[in-house]
């Protein structure tokens, strides 16, 4: 991703509607892995609509600072298929 909050937001703006895998730090050495679609980006946060088959709630939001500090890691499925 980018090195600044603005670069991270710009990188996510062009990926709206794409499927992703999101790994978040759950605290106490827990890592939460979620699958969904990047739904919207706002000035301070981005929204991910989760896969309803695997998750009990519909949407989660994270700040760009979470990505910058690597609390949240985002991998888009098209990036994974290009690597394979």
Automatic annotation (TrEMBL):
Gene3D superfamilies: 2.30.30.100. InterPro entries: Protein_Veg (IPR009366). One of its GO terms (biological process) is regulation of DNA-templated transcription. PANTHER family: PROTEIN VEG. This is ABC transporter permease. It comes from Allobacillus salarius. The lineage of its organism: Bacteria, Bacillati, Bacillota, Bacilli, Bacillales.
